[in-house]
Amino acid sequence: MNFSEPCRLSGLLGRISPDGRCLASCVQYRLIVRDVSTLQILQLYTCLDQIQYVEWSSDSLFILCAMYKRGIVQVWSLEQPDWHCKIDEGSAGLVASCWSPDGRHILNTTEFHLRITVWSLCTKSVSYIKYPKACQQGIAFTKDGRYMAVAERRDCKDFVSLFVCSDWQLLRHFDTETQDLFGIEWAPNGCVLAVWDTCLEYKILLYSLDGRLLSTYRAYEWSLGIKSIAWSPSSQFLAIGSYDEKVRILNHVTWKKIAEFEHPATVANTKTVVYKEVEKPSAVEMERLSFPPTRALSSSLFSTQSKYDISQVPVSFQYIKPVADRANPKMGIGMLAFSPDNCFLATKNDNIPNAVWIWDIQKLKLSVVLEQLCAIQSFQWDPRQPRLAVCTGNSKVYLWSPAGCVSVQVPMEGDFQIVSLCWHPSGDSMALLSKENFCMCYLEREEV
Amino acid sequence: MGDWKTVTVPVLSSDSKNIFQYTSEKKISPPSMNSQVLRLPLPSSKSMHSFFSAFCTEENIEQSISYLNRELTTLGFPSIYVEPKGKELNLISIINCMNELLVQQHKNLRAQEEVEMQHLKLGSDMDHLQNSYAKLKEQLELSKREIVGLQERDRQLQSKNRNLHQLLKNEKDEVQKLQNIISSRATQYNHDMKRKEREYNKLKERLHQLVMNKKDKKIAMEVLNYVGRADGKRGAWRTDKTEARNEEEMYKVLLSDYEQRQKQLLVENAELKKVLQQMKKEIISLLPPQKQKPKERSEDGPVLSDLEEDIGELNKENMWELSCETVREQLTNSIRKQWRMLKNHVEKLDNQVSRVHLRALDDKDVISREDHELETEKLELEIQQCKEMIKTQQQLLQQQLMSPCDDDTTLLLQDCYLLEERERLQEEWRLFREQKKNFEKERRSFTEAAIRLGLERKAFEEDRGAWLKQQFLSMSTDHKHSENVTTSSSDQDGRLLNSTSQQRKPHCTLSGPVSAEPCQTSQYVSRNSSNAASKKPAGDSKPNQWEESDEGEIE
C-alpha cells in the first residue's frame, strides 16, 4: 500500500473522474485537476467565488463548479481549457446543481425549491420543472441514464414525475400515497422506483417504470420509521434501515420481507467474527532519536499503531441512547451499502457508532462486526470486489475483505483526520479526504 | 307389669340343694337388661314338692287358700270358693284358674323371649349406629375443615383475579389513551403542516411571480460555444411521435426486464422439476418391493403407473412447454404419495428396530452395541487427543507468531537456536565425512588383501601342482631304488617340511596383519614360487602344512 503526498483541499470536494484518469479537487475558489496516478497538476481553473459543489460529467470531459452564494455555476472543459461556460441564476438563487446522465445538461434547483431549470450545453433550450419537492433525494436518474424521476409536491400532496432524459419529455406523472415524501431511488435495473415516506411514518412504495404501484410495505406504525435504504446491485433485494435499529430486506419477486437484521448491543452468535481494533504500543528505539526529528519518526512518535484482534463472543458494544426530545435523533440504521458482487451488506447502527456490521446476503446472517476505537465516519465498498474501506476520523484507513481485516496508518506529518473516502472506479486506489487535505492511497493487487 | 317380688321363703327341707333362692327382679330399667334374666326352670317333682310345701303346709292350708283366693280375685280370676265367704273350694274354678295361669305363664314366657330377642337386636343396632355416628361425625369435621380451607383459597384467588383484571384494565386504558394522544397529535401536526405549507406555497407563488416578472437579464447562461451532444446526434423537436416513441421505449425496457426474469424463473423451474423427478425415482427405488405390501401397492399401483406413464410422456414435452398446471400438480402429488409411503416404511422399520431393542435377548445385539460403544469411546478419545494436539500446535504457532512482533530478543534467540543447530549439523557432517574416509580406507585395504589372497592362492596352487609333479616324479624314481631312499626322502621331507614350515612362519606372520605392503606380498609370491621350483620334493606336504598353518594364523 502506497500513500501519496498530501494536497490541499477544502470542503471535502475531491472527486475522481468516472473514467478514472483524473482527480478534481477544490481549494477555496480554485479547481485543480490532477492525474490520478502521479497527482501531477494537469489543469488549474479559477472560479468567481468559493466553490461549494463539484461534479464530473459522465463522459469525464466537463466539470461543473457550483457557487451557491453567488448563484453561479461554472463549467470547465478538460479537452479545451479555454472553453468556459457560466450559468447565472441571478435572483432566483441556487441551492443544488447536478449533471444529467448524458453530460450535456445541467439541472439547477433554485432557492426555496421554486423550480428546477434544465440548462442545455448543446442547444439554446431551457426547460423548467415546477414544484419540485424539497427533500433529501428529490431527483433520481436510472443507472442507464434514460429516465429521471422528480419528486413534486402540489396542494399538499406528493407526486412523482418521470422524464425521458433524451428530450426531457414528461413520461408519467402520478401521485404517491405518502404523507410527506422523503426520498426516491431507482433500482439498478431501472424498472422499479422506490419511494419512501418521512420518518414519522414507516411506509415505502414501489412503482414500476410505467407508473403503476407494485407494492406497499409498512413494518409498523407510530414509531419513527425509515432512515435509509439501499438497493442491491442485481435489484433482487431492497434493504431498508429504520429507526428501530433493524434492517429489513425485501425481495423483488413478492416485495415482501424475507429477512430482518437486528443490531443489538450484545452479539452472542458463535459464528460471527468480531474484529476489535486495539492500540498497539509502538516500539521506538531510543538510539535512533535525532534532532530535528524526521517525518517518519515524528509520525510514529505521535500516533499509535493499531491492529485488529478477534474478540470472543459474546461481545458487548458501546450503546448510546440519544436524547429523546430532539428531532432527527442519532439512532437507527444510518448507513447501508451492498457490496458490488451482491454478497455482503454493510450497515451502521447509529446507536452503536463505533461498529460496522457486515451481513452475508447469501446466508442472510451476520458474518462480521468491526469494532473501532472511534466513531465511524464513512465506509465504502470497492467497486470491483467485496472489499470495504472504513474511516473513523483518525489518520488510519481500515480495510476489510472476506480474507481478513487490516488497519493502515497513513504516514503523514501533523494531523490527518480522514472524514471521507472514495474509491477509484478500478478498485486499485482510493482518495482519503480530510477537512484540510487529501491524499491518494494506492493498493497493490494482492493486498487483503 | 309392675315390680313383683316373690316372698323369699326360708330354707325348710333337707334337700336344700335343689332349693334355689329365686329372685327375679324385673324392672323396666335401662341397658343392663341382658344381665339378669333368670328363667324359671321347671323344677323336678321332688323339689317341686319341697317348694310347694314351703308355701303351704298342713297347718296353714286355709290361710294359704284364702291368700290364693285373694290374689286370684285381684288378678281378675273368679273366686275359687263356691261362695264368697264359704270354705268350700270350687274345683272347677280352681282348675280353670290354674289353666289360665298356665296359659298366661306360657304367654309371658313367649313374650319375654321376644322381648329379649328384640332387646339384643336393639342393642346391636345401637352399637352399630353409635359407631357409624362417630365415624360420620369425624368425616363431618374433616369436611368442614376442608371447606373452610378451600373457601379461604377461593377468596384469595378471587381477589388476585380481581386485582389482575384491574391492572389489565388500567394498562389497556393507558394504551388507549396514549394511542389517542398520538393520533390526535398526528392529526394536529398534519393540520399545522398543511396550513404552513399553504402559506409557504403562497409565498412561493408570489416569489415566482416576482422572479418571472423581473425578466432579469441576469438569469442567463453565457457560453463560449455550444458543445455537441454526447452521442453525436442532432437535437430533435418534441412531437407526438417522439412521445409515442418514448412510451414504446419505456415499455420495451419493462418488457425486457420481465422477460429476463421469466427466463430465470423458467430455468429455475426446470431445475427444480428435474430434482423432483430424481427424488421421486430415488424414493421409488428405496421403497420395499411390491410383494411386501400388496394391498397398498395394488391400490396405488395402477394409478401410479398411469401417472408415471403420463408424466413420462409429458416430461418429454415439459422441456418446451411452460408450466402446465395439471402436470405440475400430478408431479407434486405423486411425489407426496411416494414420500408418504417411504415415511411409513421408515416408521415401520423404526418400530421393528425398537422392538428388537426392547427384547434385547440376542447376544449379537448386545455385543454389537458394546462394540459400538467401545468404538465410539475410542473415536472420542482419538478426537480428544487430536484436539489437544491441535491446541498445543496452535499455541506454539501463536507463540511463534506473537513473539517476533513483541520483542527483538526473541528473534535473536531464535537465531541462536538456529546457529546451534547449524553447528551441530556441521559437527555431525564432519564426523560423518571422517567415518566415510575411514571406511573407504578399510574397504581399499580389504580389496587389496582380497587381491593378495587371490594371488597367493594362485601361486600356491601352482606350487602345489609343481610339488605334486615333483613328488610323483620322485616317487617313481624312489620306487626304483630301495626303501631307504624313501625313508630318507621322507626324513628329508620331514626336515624339508620343518624348514619349509619354519620358512612358512615368517611368511605367515607377514601375511597376518592387513596393513602389509603389497610389494612384500609380491616378493613373497615370487619367493614361494622360487622355493617351489627349488624344492620340489618338499612340495607334497606343503599344501597340508600351509593350510594348517595358514588356518592357524588366520584363525
From TrEMBL, chain A:
SUPFAM superfamilies to which the protein is assigned, alphabetical: WD40 repeat-like
Coiled coil: none
InterPro entries: Centrosome-WD_assoc, WD40/YVTN_repeat-like_dom_sf, WD40_repeat_dom_sf, WD40_rpt
Superkingdom to which the source organism belongs: Eukaryota
One Pfam family per UniProt: WD40
Record's GO cellular component terms: microtubule organizing center; MWP complex
Alphabetized PANTHER family for the sequence: WD REPEAT PROTEIN 8-RELATED, WD REPEAT-CONTAINING PROTEIN WRAP73
Protein name: WRP73 protein
Name of the gene: Wrap73
TrEMBL record, chain B:
UniProt subcellular location: Cell junction, Adherens junction; Cytoplasm, Cytoskeleton, Microtubule organizing center, Centrosome, Centriolar satellite
Any one Gene Ontology cellular component term annotated for this protein: adherens junction
Coiled coil: 126-213, 255-282, 369-396
Entries under InterPro entries matching the protein: Adhesion_Centrosome_assoc, Afadin/alpha-actinin-bd
Keyword Protein biosynthesis: no
One biological process term in Gene Ontology: cell adhesion
This protein's UniProt keywords: Cell adhesion, Cell junction, Coiled coil, Cytoplasm, Cytoskeleton
Composition bias, Polar residues: 484-503, 518-533
Primary subcellular site in the record, as a coarse category: other
Region Disordered, annotated ranges: 477-555
Family according to the record: Belongs to the ADIP family.
Descriptive protein name: ADIP protein
Upper taxonomic lineage: Eukaryota, Metazoa, Chordata, Craniata, Vertebrata
